[in-house]
Design brief:
With 329 residues, the chain is of the alpha+beta class. It folds into 2 domains: 168 residues, Thiolase/Chalcone synthase (Peroxisomal Thiolase, Chain A, domain 1, 3-Layer(aba) Sandwich); 150 residues, Peroxisomal Thiolase, Chain A, domain 1. It contains 11 helices and 13 strands. The longest helix is centred in the C-terminal third of the chain and has 22 residues. The structure holds oxa(dethia)-CoA. The site of oxa(dethia)-CoA has 22 residues, from helix 2, helix 6, helix 8 and strand 12. The site of oxa(dethia)-CoA (UT7) has 22 residues, from helix 2, helix 6, helix 8 and strand 12.
């Protein structure tokens, strides 16, 4: 028996008010509500205001997580932020949120693992807590994907939305134990989802802007196959690593990239009824790193877990990166 067990003691999320519907998209690109609904399951996504950035959304989600954990920002030792769309390349969004929260004693850093970011951060926070290095860690995912979405490219612009999620992880207090996390990556397939310019490889120039290289580029079909394969395998490895079977799982929260991807993974869970596979994809689209964090917060607020119930999280994204994690009630 481990002496310290990392637990999620509070969660929060934030979605901007502005809704972008499929019929709004029909007016922007050559698409249809019918195509988007049948191919992705999406109906709506949220879009941040022009002056609302990843740090603002992350701060709002963090305040809700602190409130639900009933601890103050001054008690946080470390702030970890996952984002594809940080306010700046530097300083980190974590530092901006640290300042906004007044979390004076918190060390702060961003971590980049694309849509798998939330799971990567849960894993890091678990290690920091269980090693005894830190007592309270704030994990945040915050995305303003609308600024890196090309609204002239119908194959990607229908997919993405903005939003943030957060949780407080601690060794003390009541909460959801982070029982096991399994992570993976394959950099050989880095080109499958990429924002080509804006980094040191291709700094911003008039040419990169003219070529629309500051937007998400994705090989949709290949990514779809990889997403199903990697998340299925991650779930299996994670269950085996925890010596559990699917019968021990009460809820599955997959990355909300596409309803068809979620359904393909769900098929592998013969005993888990479809109403136990939590979906937000229809109303928020794909919010990258924030996706499973937003779904987790909504699940816990709408369906409080009974003692002994377990949640299986799984995510996949650019890198490629993937993972799965088990949370115990
Ligand atoms: O979060 C990171 C992980 N991301 C993902 O996991 C996303 C994975 N990929 C997907 O979800 C799907 O591949 C997409 C939703 C991106 C695309 O769906 P698809 O069923 O793979 O469609 P497709 O790319 O094979 O395109 C089929 C047809 C094409 O037309 P033709 O060539 O058959 O005439 C596309 O041009 O659908 C067309 N199309 C559209 N039509 C109407 C593509 N986008 C649209 C659109 N509206 N928005």
């Amino acid at each position: 028996m481990k002496s310290r067990q990392a637990k999620i003691i509070g969660t929060g999320s934030y979605l901007p008010e502005k809704v972008l519907t499929n019929s709004d998209l029909e007016k922007i690109v050559d698409t249809s509500d019918e195509w988007i609904t049948t191919r992705t399951g999406m109906k709506e996504r949220r879009i941040a205001q022009a002056d609302e950035f990843a740090s603002h959304m992350g701060t709002k989600a963090a305040l809700r997580a602190l409130e639900s954990a009933k601890i103050s920002a001054s008690e946080i030792d470390f702030i970890l932020v996952a984002s594809l769309t940080p306010d700046y390349v530097f300083p980190s969004t974590a530092c901006l949120i640290q300042s906004a929260l007044g979390a004076k004693k918190a060390a702060s850093a961003d971590v980049q693992a694309a849509c798998t970011g939330y799971l990567y951060l849960l894993s890091m926070a678990k290690a920091f807590i269980e090693s005894g290095q830190y007592k309270n860690i704030l994990v945040i995912a915050a995305e303003k994907l609308s600024v890196i979405t090309n609204y002239k490219d119908r194959s990607t612009c229908v997919l993405f939305g903005d939003g943030a999620a957060a949780c407080v992880i601690s060794a003390e207090g009541k909460g959801l134990a982070i029982e096991n996390i399994q992570l993976g990556a394959d950099g050989d397939l880095a080109e499958l989802i990429v924002m080509p310019a804006g980094g040191s490889r291709k700094p911003a120039s008039a040419e990169t802007v003219a070529n629309c290289e500051h937007f998400i580029k994705m090989a949709g079909n290949e990514v779809f196959k990889q997403a199903v394969r990697r998340m299925e395998a991650a779930c299996k490895d994670c269950l085996e690593g925890a010596r559990l079977t699917e019968n021990d799982i009460s809820w599955l929260i997959p990355h909300q990239a596409n309803s068809r991807i979620i359904d393909a993974i769900a098929k592998r869970f013969e005993h888990l009824p479809s109403e136990r596979i939590f979906k937000t994809v229809q109303k928020y689209g794909n919010t990258s790193a924030s996706s499973i964090g937003i779904a987790l917060d909504e699940l816990l607020r709408t369906h409080p877990l009974k003692s002994g119930e377990k949640i299986l999280l799984t995510a996949f994204g650019a890198g490629l990166t993937w993972g799965a994690g088990i949370l115990g009630g």
